[in-house]
Amino acid sequence: MDSYERDEIPMLSVNPRPFFGQLEDSSSDNFSSRTRSASMSARMSSAESWRESNFVGHTGPDKNSFVQMSGPLYVRSKPDNSYGDTSESPEKKLQLTHKYSTNEGIIKNDWVQNNNNEKNEHLLRSGQLGMCNDPYCTTCPSYYNYRPPQGKYRRTSDIFDTKFHNVLYGDAKGWAKRFCSFLYSYIPGVMNPHARVIQKWNKFFVISCLISIFIDPLFFFVLAVLEESKCIVMDKAVSTTLVVFRSLTDMIYIFHIFLQFRLAYVAPESRVVGTGVLVDLPSKIALNYVTGFFFIDFFAALPIPQIIILVILPRYLGLSGANYAKNLLRFAILVQYIPRLYRFLPLLVGQSPIGFVFESAWENFVINLLTFVLSGHVVGSCWYLFGLQRVNQCLRDACHHSGMEFCMTFIDCGYSNTERYQSFPTWSNWTSNENATDCFVSSDGPFDYGIYEKAVNLTHHSAMNRYIYSLFWGFQQISTLAGNLEPSYFVWEVLFTMAIIGLGLLLFALLIGNMQNFLQSLGRRRLEMSLRRRDVEQWMSHRRLPQNLRRKVLEAERYNWAATRGVNEEMLMENLPEDVQREIRRHLFKFVEKVRIFKLVDEKEPILDAVYERLKQKTYIKDSEVLYQEGIIDKMVCIVRGKMESIGEDGIVVPLSEGDVCGEELLTWCLEHSSEYRDGKKGRTHGQWLRSNRTARCLTNVEAFILRARDLEEVTSLFPRILRNPRIQGAIRYESPYYRCRAATTIQVAWRYRKKWLDRINSKASLRADSRM
Fold first, then answer.
1. DSSP-assigned states of every residue in 162-190
2. 3-class DSSP state for residue 352?
3. E strands along 607-663, which residues?
4. Where are the alpha helices (DSSP H) in 450-522?
5. Which of 675, 686, 680 is nearest to 733 (CA)?
6. Do 122 and 144 meet the contact criterion of CB atoms below 8 Å apart?
7. Between 206 and 59, where is the model more confident?
């Protein structure tokens, strides 16, 4: 019986068998139509096929063994028996398994059966890297967060051992080919731009770019001036350090370039109609990147400064052509700096196609501050470079005027190696040349340095001192918009000054404005409070309110702002989903359950949610009268913070504090009248309201939630079922303090009338007895 239940009779398919090309779209449907509950063999990937050499087929009710297949159900377009013979050789079966048992088949079959489509199949194959980890994404379908059940895939160590076994014993010819196939299996597939790993990489890449664009201007400080030798030298230690750091950042940039060829993108044309469609086809991704920013990124990642410093400059140091090599280094850094900034700034301000890189307010504040520091860093470094160029031009002019031999060679000292020039007869004349000495007199010299006067005397051996002063100069000129600069008539100097002014205006308009908005947002509520206070004062002055009333109005406004923090909760709640609103109200209005009648109601009853929805926040200042005698009770007050007192007609004082309710009799009265109206006894006429027989006064500032009488009437009319509960009826009749006090007063009055009546009877009886006597 058990075997009969396990292996049921296969059902023959009515449809003809599909050909091999048709199977990809209909494999799951055809297979489900062939058998009711056939036992299926587990699929094996190519990474696991080497483990098992013997294939054991499962049997049906006729003891016919099923062929174990890990790929499509039909391997030939020729019709044959599905449960065909099992006489094939193990080698042929192994080849068949290797041909069709791939991870692609596993994941694809799962997704085809679950989703009935093959859209974004490359993302689905990538596993965790293809998933969308952005909870607010409107582009990726929800099934990108699919996680396969535990046990379907083996652990990473098993997969690694399997693939390593295939490398050693597979059918690949040659170690190189097998090793490449081994490495290719670990190359990630197409990745989702919203994956958590990609988001973390983007932040790391932005930080790396920020470091790289800080490093590039530092190459200008490799050059320095030796005043005693009247030449320009290079700092070998600084240049080596900068080359190492620049190479690290270039490697990160190159890895980012390779990553772009595997990163899905949102098709721009799909945003016209919908929210966007992810394109995960590798060929389209590559074409989109190559036609987009590939060449800009490729040029920005080229190690041009490293090649110039390590290869070109050592060949020309100490020669007349060294000046041109140094100019080439400066030109390469400046030209390569532009595409780096072009690609980096959109990521910095969060305008990347993959979303915001830095989302918090403090992160944006730090980024804006670092951008301002970067601007001062670039301006100061360029100022130092252009100052060295002006000194170099002055020394070249002095060489032309002096007519000395080899003086053009003396201007370049290489790595501060001046000993080789000692053998030249004109070396001593050059170091003491008057025209060359005047090049280092910035103020009264014959050469007009303009804005580079301070850079001429910046001849310290320490690169740190030169950099710090240049950074200070850059900050100063950006902050003052180059207001204290007087350039010479040199054209490039004038253009550089104009660029500083334009950059300063841009920073004040963008970065400084953003920082100001951030700092103002911290005190925005306080500013709104002061504006509100000024409007209230102007209104009271216009209405000519007395001083004592003005004081109460200002106190009420101040306490209301302190209680609500200036936030309009009703407007805030409107944009939230209804279920979230209900949960928030249930959390905030737990004190409603302390009301005697609502305490008897089940928490799952919708009447509580209806009451929560109609509660309004209200604040009262000290000595405010919430209720007064003979006044209409038009609200029920639930105290959240503060103290009140209730004074009855007889002068008895009842203290009220947090969690207590004032005006509870209104709810009882509404329920009672609603019940009477529905029973057909009598109906409440228009304008008939409950009047208060006590005074409720605030002893301190009170924060409360109120429920209006009109809302209470609506609640009692919407939920009449609660009135049929005997416990609620008992609470209405016997547990309400208002009606208990009213009942006690009625009993006392009746008792007094009865006592008077008894006294009257007793007095008459005594008079009759006396008359008889």
1. HHHHHHHHSS--SHHHHHHHHHHTTS---
2. strand
3. 616-620, 625-627, 635-641, 644-648, 653-656, 661-662
4. 453-456, 463-480, 491-509, 511-522
5. 675
6. no
7. 206
Residue 79 carries which side chain, given as an amino acid letter? P
Q: Return the SS3 of 355.
A: strand
- CA gap 122, 134 in Å, rounded: 19
Give 125's strand partners.
none
- Asked if pLDDT for residue 68 goes beyond 70, the answer is no
pLDDT digits (tens, 9 = 90+) for 270-321: 665 555 677 878 888 889 889 888 999 999 999 998 988 888 877 776 555 5
What DSSP state is assigned to residue 17? Answer: P
The end-to-end CA distance of the chain, in Å, is 113
What dihedral do alpha carbons 365, 368, 373, 377 form, nearest 10°? 160
Distance CA 638, CA 464 (A): 68
- Residues with Cβ within 8 Å of 425's Cβ and at least 6 positions away in sequence, in order, are none
- Specify burial of residue 268 (Cβ count, 10 A radius: 0-12, 13-18, 19+): exposed
pLDDT score at 162: 53
pTM to 2 decimals? Answer: 0.55
Average pLDDT, the chain: 72
Find residue 234's DSSP bridge partners: 223
Q: How far is CA 676 from CA 14, 486, 604, 682, 692, in A?
A: 70, 94, 26, 6, 21
Report d(CA 154, CA 158) in Å as an integer.
6
Rounded mean pLDDT, 230-252 = 89
Tokens at 307, concatenated: 């090649």
Place of tokens 């009710």: 61
Give the count of alpha carbons within 13 A of 498, CB side only: 7
DSSP assignment of 73-140 equals: S---SS---TT----S-HHHHHHHHHHH--HHHHHHHHHHHHHS--TTHHHHHTGGGGS---TT-SSS
64 pLDDT band, cuts 50/70/90, is: very low
Please answer whether residues 203 and 356 qualify as being in contact, where contact means their C-beta atoms are separated by less than 8 angstroms: no
Handedness of CA 547, 548, 549, 552 (dihedral sign): positive
Counting every residue written for the chain, the total comes to 773
Q: Is 610 exposed, middle or buried (0-12, 13-18, 19+ CB in 10 A)?
A: middle
Q: Where are the domains of the chain?
A: 2-118, 196-513, 525-564, 588-735
CATH of domain 588-735: 2.60.120.10
pLDDT at 659 over 50: yes
